[in-house]
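Reminder: ligand-aware prediction takes two inputs, not one.
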Amino acid sequence: MTLLFSTLRVLHIISGILWAGGAIAMYFFIVPTIGATGDSGKQFAGHLMGRTRFTPFMMIVGATTVVAGTILYGIDSNWFQSAWMRTPTGIGFGTGATAGILAFIFGVMVGNTNKALAALGAQIQGKPTPEQMSALQALQKRQALVGRLNAYFIMISIFFMASARMFG
Ligand code: HEM
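Here is what comes back for the chain with protoporphyrin IX containing FE:
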């Protein structure tokens, strides 16, 4: 294992653990709690998204997982040439990689939707207008969908990362 490969692998696994942990905790525990706690939940979300480094942190660990993972896959498959890709282990890592890349795309959409929700929230003074209300509902619907897809594709990815070598 070359120094580059082992360095990428360590970077990939650590950032993958941080990314998966953050996304799963967010989707299954923090977002439902925000929804269930009214104004204090909204205040908590406003601070978490607006005043902490959580969103850039999730982007950085997600991007590091995907970029390091893609290079690892490139090296393992002799840059998408070798028969390794069709072995049970190669198919396992390939499936996990695909799910991870999809999870990252949905993660970016979660971040953009949160930004749009915060901007709309800042515009609303007192009772929202009918237009603002329907825009708010549309954004909340999208946030729920991309949040679910992000969490589930991450879970599929970590299942295949943890089990790919057992297939071989
Ligand atoms: C949350 C998402 C992810 C987590 C937690 C994760 C975690 C891991 C872990 C723990 C391993 C070591 C498995 C072993 O050696 O048996 C691994 C290996 C690997 N991962 Fe991921 N991974 C994730 C996403 C991805 C993505 C998105 C890609 C590619 C785009 C990828 C590509 C790879 C490859 C190619 C290997 C094999 C490296 C080797 O030959 O040692 N992973 N990953």
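The mean pLDDT is 94. Residues 9, 12-13, 16-17, 19-20, 65-66, 69-70, 72-73, 76, 93, 96-97, 100-101, 154, 157-158, 161, 165 surround protoporphyrin IX containing FE (CB under 6 Å). We will return to this case in the review session.
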